[in-house]
Amino acid sequence: MLREVTPDDSRDIQRINNTELNKGCTLADTTSYLTTLLKDPHQHVLRVSVDPLTDQVLAYLHAELLTFTYTQPMFIITTLAVSGAYDYDKHASALLTSLINLARRRRMTTVRLGFIPDPATTAFWTQAGFIPQSHGLWDCTI
Q1: What are the structural domains of the chain?
Q2: 23: nearest Cα among 131, 140, 115
């Protein structure tokens, strides 16, 4: 099940950040960062995939609105992380589809990946339609 992030998700997101992304962030900092990001839902898209029985966060996505003077606005995915005990493709696909649908509703034509995928996830991003661009960025035309 997908839903918007709430401040109550801080502990699960911190766990995913520390175990899957090796970020080493404290719970207090994670809560503070999330609280700040959640104040601007037009600029920041924060969604989670949760276990419907326990409401435990299994994966999350953070994307940010990019605006330029020379091209249409787009979302840039800054984080898409899935807890290692769960199916990456299943949860990542659901979160990505949700973001792409939001981008289409906002009449965007591109979603950008703001990080270089690791070798284990490169096939996922390629199958999802992302194409490497300059400077390590990957774009998906929607």
Answers
A1: 2-141 (3.40.630.30)
A2: 115
pLDDT in single tens digits along all 142 residues of the chain: 999 999 999 999 999 999 999 898 999 999 999 999 999 999 999 999 999 999 999 999 999 999 988 889 999 999 999 998 889 999 999 999 999 999 999 999 999 999 888 888 899 999 999 999 988 899 999 9
Whether 18 and 30 have beta carbons less than 8 Å apart is answered as no
Alpha-carbon gap, residue 30 to 68, rounded angstroms? 29
Q: Tell me the pTM.
A: 0.93
